[in-house]
Amino acid sequence: MGEKMSRKPYVREVPKYSWFFRRPRYMRYMAREVTCIFIGAYTLLLLVGVMRLSQGQAEYEAFLAALRSPVSVVFHLLALGFSVYNTATWFNVTPKALPVQIGEEFLPGGVITGAHYLGWAVLSLAVLLMAGVF
Amino acid sequence: MAKSNKPIIWGTFAAGGTLSAFVTPVLILLTLLVALGHTPEMLAYARLHAFAAHWFGKLSLFAVISLSLWGAAHRLRITCYDFGIRADTLVATIVYLVAAFGSVAAIVYLSRI
Fold first, then answer.
1. Would you list the domain boundaries of chain A?
2. How many CB pairs under 8 A join A and B?
């Protein structure tokens, strides 16, 4: 029925594979979305690490040795960049995702975002301390 | 009312996204140090094995691995669609299966430590 009502249907042309190059906003969206490729790949690497850890000392140490390669350094740097970007985008929407209402007023978004960044910094430092990096 | 699996998928996405927002960067930093030849003490076999042998260590490792996998899987499904791969059912089946297998594998490996 809908088809008969419109004599000249407007078909908006959207390139299926390259639409996100059109605006910086779309590019930022896609940059955020592709972070999942690096986070997913890195998580699978962690899973392999746990597997090697469960197999014994020799196997685990071979896994650590295998991490020492230029390809691995490049992968880690890319993954680090994308994961930090993911964290920033995730925290920046927290005022929308977790609005805090006190009485009639809403807590300013900056406070919620700031609290997340602070928590992130404290947690990261704690992990680095626990791991004996410092 | 029709039942939907969206709350479950969204729940793991939100939990996985939040957890990986907080911990993934610092974990990558730790293994980056390994890659650069400065293995942190914690990642030495004896220390990490002791950590993973404790129930708290097992729970942390399982939560990080499984929730990050589910979060990434859900986002990868959307990303495939955005890149023009419109076979959503197939993509969803593959990514969620990988996340499910990864979660089960994590339980199996952790139970052996």
1. 14-79, 93-134
2. 150
